[in-house]
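Slack export, channel: ligand-projects

TW: morning all. Re-posting the request from yesterday since it got buried. We need the structure predicted with the small molecule present, not the apo form. The ligand is zinc ion; the SMILES is in the block with the sequence. No rush, but it would help planning for next week.
GE: picking it up
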Amino acid sequence: MNQPKVFFPKLDALQFSGLKELREKMDARSEPDIDILMRSVGVSVTKDKFEIDDEIPIVENRKAVLYIQEPKRFQGRVSVPKYHIFHCSKIKEMQEQGLYHRYHASSRTDGKFYLKLSRTNELSLRELVLCKFCLSELKKRFGWDVFPKEPEDFL
Ligand SMILES: [Zn+2]
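GE: finished. pasting the full token output, ligand included:
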């Protein structure tokens, strides 16, 4: 019987424990940092990641702005979503319907969010409007005259 020829004997070095450990560390370092994701494309909201503190959504232990990254299409038209800064009645309604997973969480403070507006997975940055229920909560908390106008005033 012919023994299988070892074409790449140096690949055995990949089994070396020190190298294996180093590769694991490199892989760990190459994982996207959650803060970078939250400030850029956002992270998906799942039941176990979503908490509420004083009616403010908390995702990955951070205050989060919620928005739907992939808006609904109806008769070829895209309905541009609003963003949410509170656990408002719209978010509660979506949770009751088991649709919270449609939301993305972001820590952006410029009111601009990455959306999937085309049928491809391409993301485009769009400025969104604050949800009317969240605006109402904002006014309740800060009054009509002094409520923050910019998302960064809130976060
Ligand atoms: Zn809202």
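GE: first-pass observations. The first helix runs from residue 17 to 30. Residues 84, 86, 88, 90-91, 131, 133-134 surround zinc ion (CB under 6 Å).
TW: perfect, thank you
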